[in-house]
TrEMBL record:
Pfam families to which the protein is assigned, alphabetical: LRR_1, LRR_6, LRR_8
Amino acid composition bias (Pro residues), ranges on this chain: 709-718
Signal peptide: 1-21
Keyword Repeat assigned: yes
Superkingdom per UniProt: Eukaryota
Name recorded for this polypeptide: Putative membrane glycoprotein lig-1
Keywords annotated in UniProt: Leucine-rich repeat, Repeat, Signal
Native source species: Nyssomyia neivai
Extent of Basic and acidic residues compositional bias: 666-677, 820-829, 836-854
Region (Disordered): 635-691, 703-725, 752-867
Length: 867
């Protein structure tokens, strides 16, 4: 139990560590787990510096096809690294300490680099720090491999595999070139332009690859210094010869496998290798096999003589090969095989004689053969006893021959697979396969059968599983009962044919290419066999199925159509909403732009209150808007061509006038201290001089029973450009400055005679009317202001909460009334005298102002001390 728990804990820990390693993998590289090893692939990135792998325990690292010129020094931080691939880089030199710190490195791939000289890679010390077992230096421009100089000898106590294939080595000189590799087992020199071999010595070398090395004749003792040599591959050396002119053979007492394929040898030249077990001699020019061709190779087990020009095989050629198991003599020109050729090969199990010119399949004595291939041999006839010499034969391939018939007495108690496809067989009998009790697969496709067989032809084949009958010119006689029985035998479980569509009619012409079951369906399964009741029920069931299917289809179509309509409506709704949103957004933007363009001047929308207005200096002229003063001033400057000094002078006058107004008001405040003089000033101001246009209004205390006005209020002057362009005497008046409880105040003017007759007890009536939509004044919706209409020589009756009945307030000046044109020639002193003649009595607040202060508060004029 404890061991299971510990195993589980270790497994979880290992999984967590590996997952963490994958998460820390550099983005440009690919990391994968193989068991407990972490493999990192950074190949093909065109990098010249090592990626950040500091936190990974890398076991296999691929840096191939990059721009490295040396082994990165950062690899010394990976002592657990076992495999390093640096092929396809630009390494030409390596220091003796390039592999220091890599104490577990076993595989180093430096193929496809620029190493040309052994001295450049320090072979004496390069491999010492690491326990390398495999070094790949293939496809480097190395030209020599010798031991003439000690500093060119590769030294490693652990190296087992050295690959120097496809370099440019032209000679191997010296018998000490492998002395620094005491454990070397596999050496590959394939693809080098070697002419000969000499002095190759190693006590551990077992495999020597010399494929395609342009070798010619070899020294007789070339392999004698390699006592452990087992396998030599000398294939594709098309000038190679292992026998001298004197008939002496290259020898090796340890060699067990040799590959001499495609070497253009004219004979068998392996007599010098008595321990051979495998000899590959395919693709040569061997023309005959004599009795002594293999007399010194009695241990041969596998012999490949395919793709030669063998036309004669001696009956005793294989007599001494008692261990022979596999023989391949395909693609030769053998006309006949003697029955006793393989008589003494008691272990021979496989014989391949395909692609020869054997015209007749005669009896062959091969006691152990279980597979015989004689396809494509132009065999015309088969002897009745052809299989008697192969008692354990299980597979026979006679396909693609010229066989027209199968002999009657051909038999085999062991044959399981018989391939007679693509022959010219026209018929079989009921006894043709009766003597093959173990037969399970028969391939008769591609022959010339026309009439289907009787089912009882195969009744004795109890283990029959498959019959191949395709690609035959079958004549479909659907009314033939035996035809239907044979088809049923093939297709009924267990089926004997994999695909019944391969059974196609060739005749009659109207059924050409039609499968059997389709061509004969109406005859084999006629509807007349059904009774009346069965027909009725069949029709009813079919009708119900068709009706149900139609209903389902209609419902599905309707549902689909409704779904599409719903989708379309929803899409249209979304489009309409989006268009509506766009219109609203467009209108809002247009209104905002129009509001910005038509926005009134703040000085127009919020004019000063009455107290502020009477403290302001009088305008020199009357204007349609407050901005027109500056506009006319600029226009006068342009027309008169004034300079900057005159502009500054105007500004000074304006500021001086405002200051003078404050001083005058202060002086007038001091004069009001005397009560008697204030009454005399009021009567004196009742008859103003002609030079001053005064307006008199009477403030009344109660407005609850005011009569309708006798004179309508003056109309509001137009604000368009045409109005602004009229005479300078036109003025811009706010008609609804005074507003009592959201109502409009209309003033009925009084003449001096009416005022005298009425006396101080009479008051002028003010008519109150509700606000209507016709009030188009831009100030109609503002809070209550001071004056509604202002005309000279009139009295305004306004109810107050602080004054007693009959008490009146006389407003001496009208700052909104038309004035005389300003005489610019007047001096500031004259202006001061003109302004000082106007006196205003203390005025209690009659209406609400903008800041909604209580009615009845008095406004005190500033005194000199306040200023």
């Amino acid at each position: 139990m404890n061991s299971v728990v510990w195993s589980f804990i270790l497994g979880i820990t290992f999984y967590v560590v590996n997952v963490e390693s994958l998460l820390l993998c550099p983005a440009e590289c690919h990391c994968a787990l193989h068991g407990i090893n972490l493999n990192v692939d950074c190949s093909g990135l065109a990098i010249s510096e090592l990626p950040d792998l500091a936190d990974l325990e890398v076991s296999w690292l691929d840096l191939s096809d990059n721009e490295f010129t040396e082994i990165p020094a950062g690899l010394q931080d990976f002592p657990q690294l076992e495999s390093l691939d640096m092929s396809g880089n630009k390494i030409s030199q390596l220091s003796g300490i390039s592999l220091s710190g890599l104490h577990n490195l076993k595989t180093l791939n430096l193929a496809r680099n620029n190493i040309s000289n052994w001295v450049d890679i320090n072979p004496n010390t390069l491999l010492q720090p690491s326990p390398l077992t495999m070094l790949n230096l293939a496809k480097n421009p190395i030209t020599t491999f010798s031991s003439i100089e000690d500093n060119t000898i590769l030294v490693s106590k652990t190296l087992k595999t050295l690959d120097l294939s496809d370099c440019k080595i032209v000679r191997m000189a010296g018998n000490q070139m492998l002395r620094g590799l005491p454990k070397l087992e596999h050496l590959s020199m394939a693809g080098n332009p070697l002419r000969t071999l000499s002095g190759v010595a190693s006590d551990s070398l077992t495999t020597f690859n010399l494929v395609n090395c342009r070798l010619g004749s070899l020294p007789l003792g070339v392999f004698s210094t390699l006592p452990a040599l087992v396998h030599v591959n000398l294939a594709r050396n098309n000038r190679l010869s292992l026998v001298t002119k004197n008939g002496e053979y290259v020898t090796s007492d340890s060699l067990k496998r040799i590959d001499l394929s495609y070497c253009n040898m004219g004979g068998v030249e392996i007599a010098g290798f008595p321990q051979l077990t495998t000899a590959v001699l395919r693709g040569n020019m061997i023309r005959q096999l004599t009795k002594d061709s293999f007399e010194n190779n009695i241990y041969l087990e596998n012999l490949d003589l395919s793709f030669n020009a063998i036309s004669y095989v001696n009956v005793g050629t294989f007599k001494d090969l008692g261990n022979l198991k596999h023989l391949d003599m395909s693609f030769n020109m053998i006309p006949r095989v003697d029955r006793d050729t393989f008589k003494h090969n008691n272990l021979l199990t496989t014989i391949n004689l395909s692609r020869n010119y054997i015209g007749r399949f005669n009896r062959i004595q091969a006691k152990a053969v279980n597979s015989l291939n004689m396809s494509w041999c132009e065999i015309v006839a088969i002897d009745a006893d052809a299989l008697q010499g192969c008692p354990v034969l299980t597979e026979l391939d006679l396909s693609n021959n010229l066989i027209t018939s199968i002999p009657e007495n051909l038999n085999s108690n062991s044959l399981q697979t018989l391939d007679l496809s693509m022959c010219r067989i026209t018929s079989i009998r009921n006894t043709t396969f009766s003597d093959f009790p173990e037969l399970s697969r028969i391939n008769l496709s591609g022959n010339r059968f026309t009439t289907p067989f009787r089912a009882d032809y195969f009744s004795e084949l109890l283990y029959l599983q498959e019959i191949g009958l395709g690609d035959n010119p079958w004549r479909c006689e659907c009314k033939n009962t035996e035809f239907f029985k044979f088809f049923s035998f093939l297709v009924e479980p267990p089926s004997k044919i994999w695909d019944k569509s391969h059974l196609r009619c060739n005749s009659p012409d109207d059924l050409y290419g039609v499968p059997w079951d389709v061509a004969c369906f109406h005859i084999w399964y006629p509807s007349s066999n059904l009774g009346t009741a069965e027909k009725v029920w069949t029709i009813i069931m079919v009708s119900m199925i068709v009706f149900a299917g139609s209903v389902c289809i209609i419902m599905s179509v309707r549902k689909c159509v409704e779904g599409r309509k719903l989708t379309a409506r929803e899409r249209e709704r979304e489009e309409f909403l989006e268009q509506h949103r766009d219109i609203i957004r467009h209108n809002r933007l247009a209104m905002e732009q129009e509001a910005q363009l038509n926005a009134p001047d703040p000085r127009e929308t919020r004019p000063p209150c009455y107290e502020d207005a009477i403290l302001m200096p009088r305008l020199d002229g009357s204007f349609a808007s407050l901005n027109e003063l500056n506009m006319r001033r600029e226009k006068r400057r342009k027309l008169a061509g004034k300079d900057d000094n005159e502009d500054e002078g105007d500004g000074t006058i304006t500021r001086r006038n405002r200051s003078r107004s404050v001083e005058v008001l202060s002086m007038r405040e001091s004069r009001t201290e005397d009560g008697q003089s204030r009454r005399s000033r009021r009567q004196r101001n009742a008859d103003p001089p002609e030079s001053l246009e005064l307006a008199r209004y009477t403030l009344i205390e109660n407005s609850s029973a005011l009569p309708a006005p006798t004179v309508p209020p003056p109309p509001t002057p137009p604000r368009n450009s045409a109005a602004r362009g009229q005479d300078n005497e036109l003025h811009y008046h706010s008609t609804e400055v005074i507003n009592l409880h959201l109502t409009t105040v209309e003033i009925e003017p009084r003449t001096p005679d009416e005022e005298t007759n009425a006396g101080m007890a009479e008051i002028e009536q003010i008519t109150m009317r509700p606000r209507t939509d016709e009030d188009t004044s831009p100030y109609a919706k503002r809070q209550q202001k001071h004056m509604s209409t202002f005309k000279g020589d009139e009295e305004l009756a306004i109810s107050t909460s602080s004054r007693s009945s009959g008490e009146r307030i006389h407003v001496i000046d009208d700052y909104f009334a038309p004035t005389e044109k300003v005489d610019k020639g007047r001096s500031s002193d004259e202006d001061f005298e003109s302004f000082s003649t106007r006196e205003i009595d203390e005025i209690p607040r009659a209406v609400q102002s903008d800041d909604k202060r209580n009615v009845g508060q008095k406004v005190r004029r500033p005194t000199e001390s306040d200023l």
